[in-house]
Amino acid sequence: MKPSINLDKKDPKICLLTKILKLFDDRTTKQLLARNNIHNINLMLDCIKIILMTMYFDYTISDMVREINRNKKLQTHFKIQNNLSKQQFYEFFSRFDAEIFNKITNSMCAKIYKTNKNPVKTYLADATPVAVDINTIKKYISKEELERLNLKWGFSKTKMHYIGFKVTVVLDKDTLCPISILIHAGAPHDTVIYNEILKELKRRRLFAKRTKLYFDRGYYSLENYKIGINRYKIVPVIAPKYENTIQKIKDNLAYPLEIFKNKNLNKTKKEYNILKTILIQQIENWDNLKPVRGLIEDFFKVAKDAFGLDKFHKYTTKSVSKSIYLCILLTTLCIQQGFMTKTKMQQLAEGNIEGRPPIKHRRKNKTQKSKNHTNTTVPQKTKQTTILDYQKDKQKTLFNYP
Fold it and tell me: Which residues, including other chains, have CB under 8 Å from residue 362's CB and lie 6 or more apart?
């Protein structure tokens, strides 16, 4: 059993959650739910608020429902209109597919993404493993059962062998807002997911002129550079995996045969050369771009450490996908409330919402004696000689015994 929630309106943790949940009471959010064929909008908003509160306070759903029904102040403060039981909550929430929550997440993030008026778009892409709650040590799971649950085995350096999913997120560098979320069963290689990421971004018309995409070295492939420039007309900045790869990239990036079919051949060649030069410059300065690339790592750190992205108590594809979308939405809305820098995101991941600096223990400054200072009272001799001299002086002062 978790302790009860103390509703202190001056508490910075309660203030942050209040700002986030107020966004769901907006008229545009209700219109968004209505567009996705959700009829009972107030009940859906209550369910979303309950799930976000469970992730925020690290509760289970049953404990959070019990806490809300017991404490009427929570209902009035967070504007939860329906007094739901645990069975009613699960029954209503299970009616909807995960794709609806994907649309809700993308639509709410689109409001934030539209604030970026920079014509040159820069995106950050990375993936993280999410394991399901199956104890493989005590329970053997056959291949048939995994296929029935649409689950696969995967491997990562952090989790080693696990059963679960791989979540790929594409962030906008300026707003730190996810523009695309992809979920794959198991752990397919990054080079396999690369083409699917670009196809999804093009489908949603998120590619502008000379768009830059930053990837880590897991996506490294000479073919991926050609796909990004030739097919999608973007700059795929993939971290080099081996030394002396710049010359290989230059030799590999030649004019495709399709370019000669265009009527404006000189214009297309010029644009191709511009994309190629931008790519070479970015790869040569990759060491300076590591702090920018590290922003998405901090985003995942907030989602995992603060809101439990990698420890869901679920084991079906439908339930895990819903939780992943809502967890990323909660992480995005929290970061937008003044946690946009690298330091602020690390403080948010550690639970330091107030933004206090770390405590530094003071050390006592040892008094350093000056070189010219000499103490005349203490003889500059060894310990043994000073004791002998002291005994001689003491014997001289003694009187003879009568």
Answer: none
pTM of the predicted structure, to 2 decimals: 0.83
pLDDT in tens, 103-156: 999 988 888 877 777 788 899 999 999 988 877 777 778 888 888 888 888 888
Distance of alpha carbon 299 from alpha carbon 171, whole angstroms: 9
Question: Tokens for 311?
Answer: 């420890």
Q: What is the largest CA-CA distance in the chain?
A: 132
Element (H, E) at 130: strand 122-131
Q: Which SS3 state, helix, strand or coil, does residue 214 take?
A: strand
User: Residues 165, 129: contact at Cβ < 8 Å?
Assistant: yes
**Cα 123–Cα 128–Cα 130 angle in degrees, nearest 5:** 140
Q: How far apart are alpha carbons 128 and 158 in whole angstroms? A: 10
Which of 20, 3, 111, 119 has its CA nearest to residue 57? 3
Contact present, 74 and 5 (Cβ < 8 Å): yes
CA gap 349, 306 in Å, rounded: 5
What is the tens place of the pLDDT at every residue in 203-251? 988 998 889 999 998 899 889 999 999 899 999 999 888 877 888 888 8
The gap from C-alpha 145 to its chain's centroid, in whole angstroms, comes to 31
Give the position of tokens 């560098």. 173
Q: Are 246 and 225 in contact (CB under 8 A)?
A: no
- Catalogue the E-assigned strands of 142-278: 152-156, 160-172, 178-185, 212-215, 235-238
Interstrand relation of 122-131 and 152-156 (parallel, antiparallel or unpaired) = unpaired
Q: Give 180's contacts (C-beta < 8 A, 6+ positions apart).
A: 106, 168, 169, 170, 197, 200, 201, 204, 206
